[in-house]
Hints:
Layout: H1 3-21, E1 29-32, E2 38-40, H2 41-54, E3 60-65, E4 72-73, E5 78-86, E6 97-104, E7 115-123, E8 127-133, E9 139-145, E10 148-155, E11 163-166, H3 175-187, E12 189-190, H4 196-206, E13 208-212, H5 225-238, E14 242-244, E15 264-267, H6 269-279
Parallel strand pairs: 3-5, 11-12, 11-13
Antiparallel strand pairs: 1-2, 3-4, 5-6, 6-7, 7-8, 8-9, 9-10, 13-15, 14-15
Bound molecules: 6-O-phosphono-beta-D-fructofuranose and manganese (II) ion.
6-O-phosphono-beta-D-fructofuranose (F6P) binds near residues 86, 87, 194 and 195.
Amino acid sequence: xxxxxxxxxxxxxxxxxxxxxxxxxxxxxxxxxxxxxxxxxxxxxxxxxxxxxxxxxxxxxxxxxxxxxxxxxxxxxxxxxxxxxxxxxxxxxxxxxxxxxxxxxxxxxxxxxxxxxxxxxxxxxxxxxxxxxxxxxxxxxxxxxxxxxxxxxxxxxxxxxxxxxxxxxxxxxxxxxxxxxxxxxxxxxxxxxxxxxxxxxxxxxxxxxxxxxxxxxxxxxxxxxxxxxxxxxxxxxxxxxxxxxxxxxxxxxxxxxxxxxxxxxxxxxxxxxxxxxxxxx
Length: 281
Ligand code: F6P
Ligand code: MN
């Protein structure tokens, strides 16, 4: 088994277990994560499950998570950067959540150009795992159920552009973005759910845009480069889409710390070009 196979296998097994047991962890409160956000019990629970499985692998040398301040050294091998439960504030209302895994061939901080694979799991009405790897030509999707994974074909962004999931309140985003958002809201169907993985999944299925821009509350954007923006950019670019922080691919963003944030836009290349034309200077 290759190193990447062993990592994908460990994520698959753990995600199956998470999917079956999420309800038991939906309510209870937890502490605060290193980005200053409220954790719920489920964030810490999922982080421990993924850590126990992944840190045990020969293929994994370092484990860095949204839920811990610093990296955990596990020997030689790839660096795992993980958001164990993305969008966990959605749990209480029983809306979808996800897991994001970046596999870097370098210690962090590092740009997305060091990624050799990325995985996103969506815990929706059913659980799917989407995998992009440097040793595969296409992005593969799997259905996770009863401890197994069933191949569900390849993922390619459609040419159509249908949905728009844009975070942030009106009046709290830059003027340039507000005016582009006005245009896009006339062309696309606004659908924002508040979990990056779910909001990106609808874009991968129907085409369009997901974005978390800079806002008054989050001047650098809310999403974290290592755990969210770069791995998801790796997947969407491999599926034929594009990504930007406003001026460059999210894979080129150089984070200055484990928990560095960035403005994040993921979707059809044509819309990404329009964002760069509006925001880049
Ligand atoms: O991980 C951060 C996150 O939960 C994302 O999954 C999601 O896109 C975002 O926060 C939602 O933030 P807000 O509640 O500000 O829309
Ligand atoms: Mn997240």
